[in-house]
Amino acid sequence: MTAAKGHGALACAAVEVRIGAKTLLANASVELAPGRVTAILGPNGAGKSTLLSVLAGQREPTQGRATLDGRPLSGHGMPMLALRRALMPQESAVAFDFTAQDIVALGRYPHRRAPTRDEDAIMAEAMALTDVTALAPRILNTLSGGEKARVHLARALAQLWHPRPDGASRWLLLDEPTAALDLAHQHSAMRLLRAWAARGVGVVAVLHDLNLARRYADEVVVLGAPGGLRQGATADVLQPALIEAVWRMPCQPVTGADGVTQYLFG
Amino acid sequence: MSQRLGARAVLFGSAVLLVAAFAVGAVSGAYAISLSQLWNVLTSLGQGAGSQSPEHLVFLNIRLPRLVLGVAAGAGLGMAGTLMQGLFRNPLADPGLIGISSGAALAAGITIVLGASFWPMLPRTLGSWTLVLMAFGGGFVVTLLIYGLSRSEGGTRMALMLLAGIAINALAGAGLGLLSVMATDEQLRSLQFWLLGSLGGARWSAVILVGVAVLLSCWAAASLASPLNAIALGEAQAALLGVDVERTKRRAVVITAVAVGAVTATTGIIGFIGLIAPHWVRMVAGPDHRIVLPASALLGAALVLAADTVARTVMAPAELPLGVLTAFIGVPMFLLMLRHFRGRI
Amino acid sequence: MTEQRDLSFLSSSSVPRRRDALRLLSAAALGAGAWPAFAQDSKRLPRLVTVSGAITEVVYALGAEGQLVGTDTTSLFPAAARATPKVGYMRQLSAEGLLSLKPDAIIATNESGPTVVLDQIRTAGVKVEIIEADHSWGEVQRKVQAVGRAAAKEVQARELQARLDAEWAQVLQRIGGAKGRKPKVLFVLSHSASPQVSGEKTAAHAVIGFAGGVNALGGFNGYRPMTAEAMASAAPDIILTSTQSIEAHGGVERFWQRSELALTPAYKKRALITQDALLLLGFGPRLPAAIGELHDKFRAALA
Fold first, then answer.
1. Rg of chain A over CA atoms, in angstroms?
2. Which of B174, B176, B47 shows the shortest CA–CA distance to B110?
3. SMART domains from the xrefs (chain A) (predicted)?
4. How many angstroms separate the CA atoms of B241 and B238, rounded?
5. Which of A27, C82, C174, C277 has a CA positioned 20 to 30 A from the CA of residue A236?
6. Pick from B57, B188, B317: which is nearest to C70 by CB?
7. Distance CA B305, CA A119 (A)
8. Cβ–Cβ < 8 Å for B335, B54
9. Which residues are CB-neighbours of C287 under 8 A, at least 6 positions away?
10. A41 neighbors A236 (Cβ within 8 angstroms)
11. Torsional class of B268: left (φ above 0), alpha (ψ -120 to 50), beta (otherwise)
């Protein structure tokens, strides 16, 4: 299911990231197409966040390179990338007493030179989507972990709100977006991501929860598998044998009344 | 808690405060000038050097340049304080962290104590500008040193800058200590007064230079407001939003060095304005740098004018050094801020 | 020593009549009030501000204290001077403060400042007399002349100068005629933590020389921190210091407890002479008396 090169694809080829003697990521090659939800999975230390930051253009690999539309990310330039790609961080310490509203507004920073007519509406709708409208006037640093995460998600959505005039692909990258969220919000967030993928945005999320991935991701990238990185359709890749090999947990698939397979561990 | 005043209200309010402080400063002073005399001076400004009454001379040659210098000093310090706090992402930062004040002080100390014996041609060629130029140069050099020390792979690291600043500041302090041991009583007194800061002896040539330097710096700083907002999310996130973080840092450091360097070289060390002004603005207007930068400049100017008016009237005909007053206000303010920010440092 | 220079100063002070007239005209032009150089009995005598204790003393010696509207913080003698309005420390004067006293003239030494402030005062039409402090008898003479000019009391100034010149000549003659070796004297200055000792080109150095002593230290100008080794090699017979320095140390006993002094000949005999700083180093009208007193104390200490 590899997308055609150059058509809005986000990819990396034979990427290695090393700091000193420590190798964070080795020989990683992925090919991602927009319009899908891709989950990056793996045990702790497998390099999930590292891979995501390479794909975001935040980190230069020591070997190999990441490309967008076939061109290296460094060739696009950060200001241009910011118009097409948003990264929701795992955690972020915000200085000063900015409100939630202020933070979501920062998502529109890349568009400051060419603001649309509905800037205020964008922020309001983004906050409504992640259910943080009531938190708008609150100071971010006073919010709970889950509330902060939803504000940052709204910011990322605001950043990518409108399709690009030239039809270029948009990419929503998320580092453990559901880690701090309560159960209801976890699922509503994942449904939101699916909706955005349906509108053509490429969604890539580092997830911890295999069941969330199984339920909501079209495709998975598994790091730390014997034989290297595995990429493919969720149902194909996430087989019990692989799960047990990578996460060292015996797992038993069960299918619910809605027809979705989930895993029982332990 | 979130009853923040809008941008217009804050800017208007700080401008009003500045104008009020300027007006009060204009009518106050050791030399008694009545309002009607002041009016005469102002109205006769257009008409050449006709009647040079003593009030005329005192106001135009002594009091007015001092007021203008106060505005420039306060604006430069307030603006630079905002830049530093934005850069370090910490409301307790101030321009002294990157070594301008200590560098200027060290250079001033060297000039005062060693100047005559080691470089006698310097005072002869530069005259009364020697101290000013040396102090400016010293501040600049030390800032460059600290900036250079904070560079690592992938750019300048603020944590390194902070540590380098602490170390270099300590070194400059030690140098000053050495100089004070070597100094004669007179030199020590001169140095001491310089370190305490003062707007006294302001002459138009120096005031205009400082004014231009501060004006240019404030204008250059305006374009840093939005990037600094993004940097509040963290440098990584700001880069992802397309902010050129390295360039922002470099510009902020240079602008601060120029503005604070020019001010410090002319007035000596005036502390706490760069710390207090942005804090007070944030308390009423929130942390948006697009408001805090200009408002801190205006409020800083008002604060310096107010402090200077007290400094030159409370002990007339003598004067209190300005730095003493700003410390008396600033230290309790600083402690209050520490309490306020306790949980978040 | 300076006999010839003394005489020349005596004669030059009779020149300024023409200068007075010119000054009168320019003062009238400036509208800064008449300059009654001739009319010493006119109602309006020049208002004076003096910066430096010795110059203030000259004003009182001339009987012109009624014209004194302000002094600096070093002007402490006579006691009445302490009650005059203070314009601040002599190196950190305030332009507006000075002008608010509406002086006609300011007399200061070249150590006063900041220079910008003095320039501003001049521009405002106030006469600024600067006296070069070169630690010679000429310095005292210049102070007397300058105050005499500024206070419009030239006659009294000439009388005072003649009297002081005679005192000075007398004292120098007495000291010059004294027999016996000249004591090695070390001057210690200590207003704050670290005491300093005086080399050449200082007021103390000149005073020691005048009083018939020899500065135990040489080869450097100005002041240096006091160290034990330097003290030992200098080997002063007598330690000279100001009463203010002794107070800063907490008394004579505490002063002698300083380790740097322990190896000096002065320590063995506890040869310490203290003088008020202004009297000793101010180079004012009391200098002849101070030198005479100092010389006598030198002799007593050596005996």
1. 18
2. B176
3. AAA
4. 5
5. A27
6. B317
7. 41
8. no
9. C137, C140, C168
10. no
11. left
Query: Per-residue pLDDT tens for B100-157?
Result: 888 999 998 998 888 767 666 666 666 678 888 889 999 999 998 989 898 887 778 8
Residue whose entry in the numeric block shows the structure tokens 């507006």: C96
Q: Any idea which residue has 């006598």 for tokens? A: C296
Distance CA C301, CA C303 (A): 6
Residue C264 pLDDT greater than 70, yes or no: yes
SS3 of B8, please?
helix
Q: What's the rounded Cα separation, in Å, for the pair C240 and A111?
A: 78
Contact status of A47 with chain B (Cβ, < 8 Å): no
Taking the CA of residue A226 as centre, how many other CA atoms within 13 Å lie in the half-sphere pointing to its CB?
8
- Per-residue model confidence (pLDDT) at position A148: 95
pLDDT score for B97: 86
Q: What's the rounded Cα separation, in Å, for the pair B265 and B135? A: 5
CB C273 within 8 A of CB C213: no
Report the 10 Å Cβ neighbour count for B41.
21
Q: Which amino acid is at A148?
A: K
Q: Is C15 left (phi over 0), alpha (psi -120 to 50) or beta?
A: alpha
Higher pLDDT: C19 or B329? It is: B329
Nearest beta carbon to residue C124 from set B29, B54, B185: B54
> What would the DSSP string read from start to end of B140-162?
HHHHHHHHHHTEETTEE-HHHHH
Q: Which amino acid is at B317?
A: P
Residue B56: predicted pLDDT: 79
Token pair for C88: 């601040």
> What pLDDT is attached to residue B345?
42
Q: Which residues pair with B231 in a beta bridge?
A: none
Q: Other C-beta atoms within 10 Å of B322: how many?
A: 27
CA distances, B122 to each of A110, B117, B127, B130, C91 (Å)? 51, 10, 8, 7, 21
The answer to whether the CB atoms of B232 and A95 lie below 8 A apart is yes
Q: Minimal CA–CA distance to B71: which of B23, B30, B28, B136? A: B23
Long-range contacts of C265-268 (CB under 8 A, 24+ apart): C265/C235, C265/C236, C265/C237, C266/C186, C266/C236, C266/C237, C266/C238, C266/C239
Type of residue numbered A156 = A
* Nearest partner of B24 among B33, B275, B326, B53, judged by Cα: B33
Best mutation target among B62, B199, B266 (most C Cβ atoms within 10 Å) is B62
Q: Which of A81, A106, A112 sits opposite B233 (nearest CB)?
A: A106
Instruction: Identify the three-state secondary structure at position C223.
Output: strand
- DSSP letters spanning chain A: -PPPTTSS-EEEEEEEEEETTEEEEEEEEEEE-TTSEEEEE-STTSSHHHHHHHHHTSS--SEEEEEETTEEHHHH-HHHHHHHEEEE-S--PPPS--BHHHHHHHTTGGGTTS--TTHHHHHHHHHHHTT-GGGTTSBGGGS-HHHHHHHHHHHHHHHT-SPPTT----EEEEESTTTT--HHHHHHHHHHHHHHHHTT-EEEEE-S-HHHHHHH-SEEEE-S-TTS-EEEEHHHH--HHHHHHHH---EEEEE-TTS-EEEEE-
Q: Assign residue B150 a region: left if phi > 0, alpha if psi is -120 to 50, beta otherwise?
A: alpha
Residue A78 and residue B236: Cβ atoms within 8 Å?
A: no
- Report which secondary-structure segment, H or E, holds B210: helix B204-222
The tens digit of pLDDT for each residue in B251-281 reads 999 999 999 999 999 999 998 899 999 998 9
Which 3 state secondary structure label does DSSP give B17? Answer: helix
Chain C contacts in chain B segment 262-321 (CB below 8 A): 312, 316-319, 321
What is the C-alpha to C-alpha distance for residues C183 and C22, in angstroms, rounded to an integer? Answer: 51
Partners of residue C154 on adjacent β-strands: none
Q: Which pair of tokens denotes residue B44?
A: 């006769």
Q: Does B243 touch chain A (CB under 8 A)?
A: yes
Query: Residue C26: what residue type?
Result: S
- Residue B325, both tokens: 């007053």
